Amino acid sequence: MSGSRLALTVIFAAAALSAAACSGSETPAENTQSACDAYAEFSGAVSDARASIDSSSTIEEIQAERDTIENAYQDLGPALESVAEDRRTALDDAWTNFDDAVANIDESMTVPQAAASLSDDIEQIRNARDGLESELGC
């Protein structure tokens, strides 16, 4: 491997790794909507319990509120996992495409040509990173 190709590989690998640092048959958009719906249900259950539990509440009423929150919480977990898996899959796919592209660079290319040939793959990693960042709120 030539020095310039090695340098190019190191630069792009570092960029891909920094992007990474920061499911079922449903589409990522459907998974996100399901997670938002589950979150709204959970948030509503917490708000309802907060408003209805007071010093006059019976133990049974408190337990019923807890059960309602628990059910919403149990629905929320898998929904969040689906969204996280979608983001991870997108990042894994983008990384694999980039890694394969770097491994298959034509050695007769100049560094600028090689860099240009990888721009779409870097863009895929950037988009996957942005999606992950957006979900994480970083």
From TrEMBL:
Keyword Signal: yes
Record has Signal as a keyword: yes
Keywords in alphabetical order: Signal
Highest taxon of the lineage: Bacteria
PROSITE patterns per record: PROKAR_LIPOPROTEIN
Residues spanning the signal sequence: 1-21
Full protein name: Uncharacterized protein
Organism encoding this protein: Arthrobacter pullicola
